């Protein structure tokens, strides 16, 4: 089985220690992750700092051309990356799985390549001229999660280098191999040291976020880990972009046709097996159509094949790791014990791997853990309501504020209520449909800063005003 290497300063760097990476569908070893030391982290930061001098001064159009070339190179290796991604992450190759993820990585890379941040003229009159320049920050540190490892790596890397920074990325130890391979592919295009990858357990991520040579951290993951990243930035006042956990609420108004919205509700909740920060995590349904919506969701869930991601007949795969598998199981059991009605699923599947069925739970409310906490897996609580103003207040009564949605046959009415939700993104008659030109980020404890589009690119710059 292959032992992977770090990639530092354009060179593959072998290490003395490795850890196995397992396929969550069957426990098979996919490969061995290199365990970087702090000395190797220092080496990666130094390589990025050395590369920054030339990369940051490269003409903007040349950096754009390099990002376009990266997209083409990733496209050439798309199937290879998808196969590796399925083996280590578990998601199916087809449908909204690994090929979809690689396609998303390409879409974001291509869009970001075409962005630019020209000089802004703030004043030009008899009293003088004021120009606003946006300049790269320096070496960026990136920590990525295990749910969408390739796409989120591109969300971090491409805007960072497009703006003129260099980067050291540390992927999750659950899914490091596809990121290592992605960075190897990128280094076929980029100057040495512009993109570096170090891997290891969580301790190396903590060392990265505290490293004095890192000027900015970008992190996608849990709120609790995000707080640690933020705390570690204090000593050097690092810039931060944090995209953290969500507990997204969806509100279904009484004027909908349950059969027509069932598919959208289902994929809003269960894309990537529910392992998505901006997935629908709490569904509030008006009393007059509550049973009809529940039944429509159960009917749709019955059509979804679950199994090994390498079998292209499957639509959903396993939960990615044991810790998350156990959390989903605990939350479902807590709901059952408190009187929640299991409409479908509710027990681990009797097979090897971390397989848990699509689980829909009715007759739950605030005070149930599965409503109050982020489940991050294939279980959806469905909450009955009668008063729209009350349910908006209840939807907002949560420390998270990443996404939300309102479902109605009247889009203007839906927008009226959507604007009252306390979240960074809100959707009408869909959920979680992020796109590369729409800024994305959370409020409250779901994060700081935004990603995507020109606003996301600005997060990788500092402002310098020139007054003349």
UniProtKB/TrEMBL annotation:
Question: What residues does the Aldehyde dehydrogenase domain cover?
Answer: 18-466
* Organism field: Pseudaminobacter soli
- Provide the organism lineage as a comma list: Bacteria, Pseudomonadati, Pseudomonadota, Alphaproteobacteria, Hyphomicrobiales
The domain of life for this entry's organism is Bacteria
Would the keyword Oxidoreductase be found if you checked this record's keyword annotation? yes
Active-site residue numbers:
243
Q: Indicate what this protein is called per its UniProt record.
A: Aldehyde dehydrogenase
| Keyword line | Oxidoreductase
Q: Which InterPro entries match?
A: Ald_DH/histidinol_DH, Ald_DH_C, Ald_DH_CS_CYS, Ald_DH_CS_GLU, Ald_DH_N, Aldehyde_DH_dom, LUC3-like
SUPFAM superfamilies given for it?
ALDH-like
Under the heading Pfam families, the entry gives: Aldedh
Mark the transmembrane ranges. none
GO molecular function, a single term:
oxidoreductase activity, acting on the aldehyde or oxo group of donors, NAD or NADP as acceptor
